[in-house]
Amino acid sequence: MGLRVGFVGCGGFASSFIPLFRLHPLVEKVVLCDRKPDRLAEKAKQFGVAEAYTDMDDMLRRSNVDCVAVFVPRHLHGPVVTQALKAGKHVYCAVPTGNSVEEIHEIVDLVRSTRLIYMIGETCYYFPCAMFCRKMFRSGRLGEFVYGEAQYHHDISEFYPYYQREEGDNWRRVAGLPPFFYPTHSTAMLISAVADHATKVTALGYRDHGNDSIYGEGKNNWDNPFSNETMLVRLSRGGVGRINEFRRVGTRRPSSYITCMYGNKGGYEMSSRHHVLQEVHDGAPTTLTDVSAEINSTLFETERDLPDYCQRSLNAKYDSGFSRIHNVARLPKEFAGYTGFQHNGSHQFLVDDFVKAATANKLPPNHVWAAARYMLPGLIGHQSALRDGEPMPVPDFGDPPADWALLNPDGE
Ligand SMILES: NC(=O)c1ccc[n+]([C@@H]2O[C@H](COP(=O)([O-])OP(=O)(O)OC[C@H]3O[C@@H](n4cnc5c(N)ncnc54)[C@H](O)[C@@H]3O)[C@@H](O)[C@H]2O)c1
What we know:
Layout: E1 3-8, H1 14-23, E2 27-33, H2 37-47, E3 52-53, H3 56-62, E4 67-70, H4 77-86, E5 90-94, H5 101-114, E6 118-121, H6 128-139, E7 145-153, H7 160-167, H8 171-175, H9 184-194, E8 198-207, E9 226-235, E10 240-246, E11 256-263, E12 266-271, E13 274-281, E14 284-290, H10 292-295, H11 298-303, H12 309-312, H13 346-360, H14 368-386, E15 392-393
Parallel strand pairs: 1-2, 1-4, 2-3, 4-5, 5-6, 7-10
Antiparallel strand pairs: 7-11, 8-9, 8-15, 9-10, 11-12, 12-13, 13-14
Helix pairs in contact: 1-13, 4-5, 5-14, 6-9, 9-14
Bound molecules: nicotinamide-adenine-dinucleotide.
Nicotinamide-adenine-dinucleotide (NAD) binds near residues 14 and 94.
C-alpha cells in the first residue's frame, strides 16, 4: 500500500505540489483540505481529487491519511504541524518551520518522541548554486569553510496582489512579517553547504521608509519596523556567514543566490549568472574554472550567447528548469511528463525525498534538526536587529538520533 497524503492549504503553492504527489509511484492517494470552500471545490475539480475537507480536524479524523502536507500561509505553520504530528502523521511543510524558538523546539521534541518524519520543503536546498557548494565542500575541494554570503531578495511590492487577495483589508498586518522570520531561502543554502550550525549572530535592520504602511511599530502583527535584515553568523567550527533577507530592494533576478563561498583551499563566486571556481593547489598554479554551465539552468545556457544576455538573465523562466548538476535520473519516471519547473526544478526532488523518507522511515536531508538550524539564526537575528546589532547566542537542537538512518547518506 502506498502513502496517503492530506494537503492542508490548497492555494497557489500547493497547486504545484498536488500533481507531483499524485504522480509519485509510492503515493496511493491525495486528499485536500482548505478552509475556503470555493477554493477547495475548485482545486478538487482541477486535480481530480475525490476527497476534500474544509476542516483539518475533520480530515485527520475521517480520512485515513498517513502524511500531512502543510501549505497554509507562512505565519501559521507551527500549530498546524504540531497538530498533525500529535495526530500521528508524517509532515511535509513548506517554509518556514514556525515563528518562534518555542514552536520549533516543540516540533523537534515531537519528532524525536514519535519518530515521525518532518521535512521542511526548502526549495533552495536544490538550487544549483547550493548543490554545487555542498558538492565542493563534501568533496574537500574548497577545504575548510571560512566565509560565505547568501541572500533572498524579493521586493514586497511583488506580493501586494497576493496578500490583498488572501487577507483582505488587513493584508498589511500579515505582509509585514520580519524578513528573518522567513530566513531559510538564504540560511539553508549556507548551512547545508558547510554542514555546520550557527552559535552566534549580530544583525542590523533597515528601518523601512516605504509609503505602503507595511513596516513599522503598530503596523503589522509583529510590530516589525524592518523591511530588510542583514546578519553575520558565527558557525560552530569558526566560519562566518553573511545573510540578507530583503523585502525592499531594487533588484529582481535571481532572488535567492550565493554570492560567494570561500574555503581555505578554494572559493566559489557568482555575479550576474557567471559562476566561477578558484582552487589553490599545493606546488602548482591556482586555477580558475568557469562552472556556469553546470549551475545555470539548461535553458539559460542554450541562450546565453545571445546579444541581449544581460537583459535576458532577468527572465524568471531561467530560474525554472533543471541544471546539469541535478541528478534527474534519480527521480521517478512518472515525473517525466510534468512540466511545472518552478524554483529550479527543486519541487520534484523535494517530493521524492519526502515520499521515500516517509515510506522507509528514513530521515530526508531536510529533516527537522536541519530545519531548526536553518530557522534559529533568523529568529534570533531579528531580536539582535531590534537591539541594534547586539551579539546574541543561537541555540542548537543538535543532530538527529544516531540510530535513525539517513535517506541519502552520500548526498543527492
Ligand atoms: N519557494 C518556496 O519555498 C515557497 C514559495 C511560495 C510559497 N511558499 C510557502 O507556501 C505556503 C503557502 O503559500 P501560498 O502562496 O500557496 O499561500 P496561499 O495563501 O495561496 O494558500 C494558503 C491556503 O491555506 C488555506 N488555509 C489557511 N489556513 C488554513 C487552515 N487552518 N486549514 C485549512 N486551510 C487553511 C487558505 O485558505 C489558502 O487557500 C506559505 O507558507 C509560503 O511561505 C514557499
